[in-house]
Amino acid sequence: MTSNKTALVLGATGLVGRALVRCLLLDPRYVQITCLVRRPIPFAFFSDPLKKLTPVVIDFENLQDYQGYFNVDHVYCCLGTTLKKAGNKEAFRKVDFEYVHVCAQLARAQRCQGFVWISSVGADANSNNFYLRVKGQLENAIMSMPQLQHAAAVRPSLLLGKREEKRPLEQFGQYVAPVVGMFMPGPLAKFKPVSAVEVANQMVRLQHF
C-alpha cells in the first residue's frame, strides 16, 4: 500500500529518533520526512536512496519561528534529555516539557493528523520522582489540548540500543535485559527493557492513516 504522507521528526539524532527516521524512510506511505535538528546531520547518518529526507537546522529556543514546518500529516517528537546532561531541573524541564509542549501546540495550529511523543513508563503528574512527574505533567497538558488530533504518547521503560553518549544505567540494561524479561510477566511486562526500534515502530503504529 502506498500513500503520500509527510512527516516531521524532532529529536532525529537521539536513540529512538534515529530508529524512527530509518523506519519512516523505509515506509512507502511516506514521501517526505523533515527533521528539525540543532546541528547539521552527517551525510552518512541515514540511508536515503529515495531522497525523502530534509534536515533543517533550527534554534529550539524559538520553535514558534518554524511553525511552517509543522504543516505535515504526522509529527513525531523524540525530544528528551537527562538530568545529568541538562545540568539542573530547570534545564531538563525546558527540553522534556516546554519544547515538546510547544511542538504539540504548533502541530495543533497546523491541523496535523497525528502527534506522537515519547513519555515514560510510570509517568505521573503526582509522582515524588521529578523525572516521572514532569513526564506526567506533560501528558496531562498535551492530552487536554483542544483540537489536537490523535495525540498519543509511548511509554517505554529502559531503552536499549547503541547511543553516541554514555548512559551507564542503559548500558547495564543491555546486559541484564534478557534475564530481567524472563521474570516480568503479566502486569510487570511494561517495565521490561525495550529496544529503540520497538519504540519507533510503536510510534508509527499509533499514527492514523
From TrEMBL:
SUPFAM superfamilies: NAD(P)-binding Rossmann-fold domains. Gene3D superfamilies: NAD(P)-binding Rossmann-like Domain (3.40.50.720). Pfam families: NAD_binding_10 (PF13460). Transmembrane segments: none annotated. Residues 11-135 form the NAD(P)-binding domain. InterPro entries: NAD(P)-bd_dom, NAD(P)-bd_dom_sf. This is NAD-dependent epimerase/dehydratase family protein. It comes from Alteromonas aestuariivivens.
